[in-house]
Amino acid sequence: MMTTQSTALSLFGSLLLLLLAATNPAAEAFCPPSSSTQQQRTKLFMSTTDATGSPTSSSTTENDELAATVTKLKRVLAKEYTSFFNPMVDSWYAPDVTFTDPMTSLSGVDSYRKNVDMLAGRTLMGKVLFEGAGINLHSVTGGEIVNGRVDDIVTRWTLRLTAKVLPWSPEAVFSGVSVYKIALGGKEGLSIVGQTDYWDSINIQPDTPSTNVKQQYQTVPKNIAVSDFLAQLAPTGFLAPTAAPELPYLLLRRGDGYELRKYPGFVGVETPYMRRDYGFGSLGAFAKGMDPLAPSICKVYNDDNVDDGDGKEKMMMWPLKFAFPGEGTDAPPAPAAAIEKAGSGQWASINIMSQPERIVAIRAFEDAAMGPVVRNADRELRAMLKRDGLEVEDGTEQYVLFTQYDAVHSMGKRRSEVWIDLKDGG
Question: Once rounded to an integer, what is the mean pLDDT over residues 28-45?
Answer without folding.
Answer: 34
